[in-house]
Amino acid sequence: MSSRAAVLLAIFGVLALAVVPWLAPPFYASLLISFFAYAIALLGFNLLFGYGGLLSFGHAMFLGFGAYGTAIVSGVLGIKSFEVALIAVVIGAAIAAAPIGWLCVRYTGIFFGMLTLAFGMLFHSFLFKFYYVTGGDSGMRIPRMNILGLELAQYNKISFLAGPFYYYCLALLVIAGLIMWRIVHSPFGLHLRALRDNPRKAEYLGVRVREFRLVAFVISSVFAAAGGAILGLRIGLADPELVYWTHSGQLVFMTVLGGFTNFFGPILGALAFTLLQDQLQSLTQYWRFVLGAILALLVIGFPTGIAGLIRNYNWRRVAAT
Amino acid sequence: MNIILETRGVSKFYGAFCALDNVSIAIRNDERTAIVGPNGAGKTTLVNLLTGLHLPSKGAVYFKGEDILGANPINLAERGLARAFQLVHIFPKLTVGETIAAAIVTRQRKRWNLFSSLARDSAVARRIEEIAKIFALESRINTESQLLSQGEKKLLDVASAFALDPEVILLDEPTSGISTSEKHRIMKTLIAAAERANVKAMILVEHDMDLVATYSDRIIALAEGKVLADLPPKEFFADPKVIETVVGKLRAV
Prior knowledge:
The structure holds two protein chains of two kinds. Chain A is mainly alpha-helical. Chain A has a domain at 33-243. Helices cover 76% and strands 1% of the residues of chain A. Chain A has a two-stranded antiparallel sheet with strand order 1-2. The longest helix of chain A has 27 residues, at 209-235. The two termini of chain A are 26 Å apart. By secondary structure, chain B is an alpha/beta fold. Chain B has a single domain (3-251), classed as Rossmann fold (3-Layer(aba) Sandwich), CATH 3.40.50.300. In chain B, helix 6 links the parallel strand 7 (168-172) and strand 8. In chain B, helix 3 (96-107) packs across helix 4 (122-134), helix 3 runs parallel beside helix 5 (150-162) and helix 5 (150-162) packs parallel to helix 6.
C-alpha cells in the first residue's frame, strides 16, 4: 500500500470513529472502547505475527499484565492518574516480556506457539490460585481514574466512557498506529520481514534473527499491555478470564479476520469482531458456534481477511456498473 | 598476495561419517578460487564451515588472520564474508529493492533504527539502484521476489550478497538450474560485479567444468573429504587422474 493511500484511509477511519459518539447511543461508544483496546494490542500482536512470522497463543497474558497493573496502580496504590498506570504497565510488560520472550523466541512455528500458550496458562493459574494477592476468580477492582489530570466528576460511568474516554482512546490508537507505522517501515521492520520469509538467508545478510524476534516480542507485549489497561478500566475489573487461552485465541481470530498481511487488517479485525460478537450475543446463545463457522470459512476461503477482500475487490467494475 | 581465508587441519564428522578429513586450504586475495569435486566430496560441508554455519570437529578456520571459531553467519556478514546459495534463497514476499536493502541496512549499520523511514533514506535508495543496475534488475526493483524468473531469483540472491560490500564472496553453484546459454552471461555479470564492488576474493563452488576452466585462477579439488589437488587451471586440466576422479570418465575434458 502506498503511504498516501494509507494516510487517506487512516484519516477517513479516524473521522468516522470521531463522529460515532454523536450519532450512536452511548452503549455503542462504550463498546468501541474495547475495540480501541484490542486494536492497540493487535497492532503489536501483528508486528510479531504478520511481520515477524511468530504466532503467539499466549498474548492475552500481556492484556492481563495491563489490566492487573492498572488495578494495582489505582486500586492498591491509590494513584488515580491513568497516564501513570499506562506508563507503569508498559514498562512492567517490557521487563516481564524480555525473559519470557528470550525463552520463547528460541523456537519457531508450533513450538513457539505452545511455549507462549504455556506461559499464558501459567500466569492464568497464578492469578487464579494466589487469592490473597490477585483476588482469585473474582479478580481485582479497578476504580475510576483521571485522564490528563481531569477528574471529570460530572460524568457518570457510561457517559465518561462514551465521551471523554472515547476520544482519549481514539487518540491513543492514533499514537499507537503512528508508532507502529514507523516501526514496520524502518530498517528494523525490513529485517523483521526478511527473517520471517527466510531466516537462513537473512542471517547471511547480517540480520540478527533471534535478537530481532525478541525485540518484536517485547514491543508487541508493550502494545498488548497498553490495550489491557484500557480494557481493564472499561470493565472496572481485572479478572483471570482476561488471561485465559481462549482470549489469546480471540486475538488470533481478530487478526486473521481483519487480515494479517495488511497494516490496517488487525484494526479492521478488532472492529469487526467487537461489533459481530455484540450482535451475535444478543441474537443467540450459540454465538461462539457462529464465530467458529466464520473463522473456518475465512481460513479456507479468504486467508487475507477483510483487508484482503477490500483490496482485491474489483472496485473499477463496481464503478462502471 | 595475502591469505584472506584459511582452514588449518579441518575435519568434520557426522556421527561416524567423516565428511572432511584434515583439510588445509588457503584462499588468497585477488584470486578466483574454484572448489570442485564429485557429489559427496565435502564441498558443501567445507562451505558451511568457512561461513560459520557449522563448527569443525577438529582444526580451525581463519578469516583475515582471525580464528572464526564460534562466529556465526551474521557476524561474518558484518566482517565482510558473504555467501550466495546453491538453491535459490530469496525472501518471497519482499520486493527486489527490499531484498537488496536488507543487506545495505546491515552494511550501513542501520538495523537498530526502529523509527526512521527506510523509504526516505536516500543513501539506501542510491545503493539499491547501483546494485540493481549491476545485476540488470533495475526494472524489477518494485517486483515481489516470488514473481521473478528462476534466473532473476538467482541473480537477486547473489546481488543481495554483493550488497554487503564483502571482501570475500562465496558462490555455491551460482549457475545451477540455469540454462547453458545463460550461464556465461550470468558468470560474466558476477565477475564484473565483483570487480566493481572491490571484492578481494571470490570462491566458486561449481560442478560445471567449462565454467571452472573459464573463470577461475585456481582450482581446489576435493574427493572423499580430502584435498585431491590445488592447482592453477592449466596444470589441473593436464592431470588426467585428477580429472577422472572429479568429473568421471564420461565427462573428461
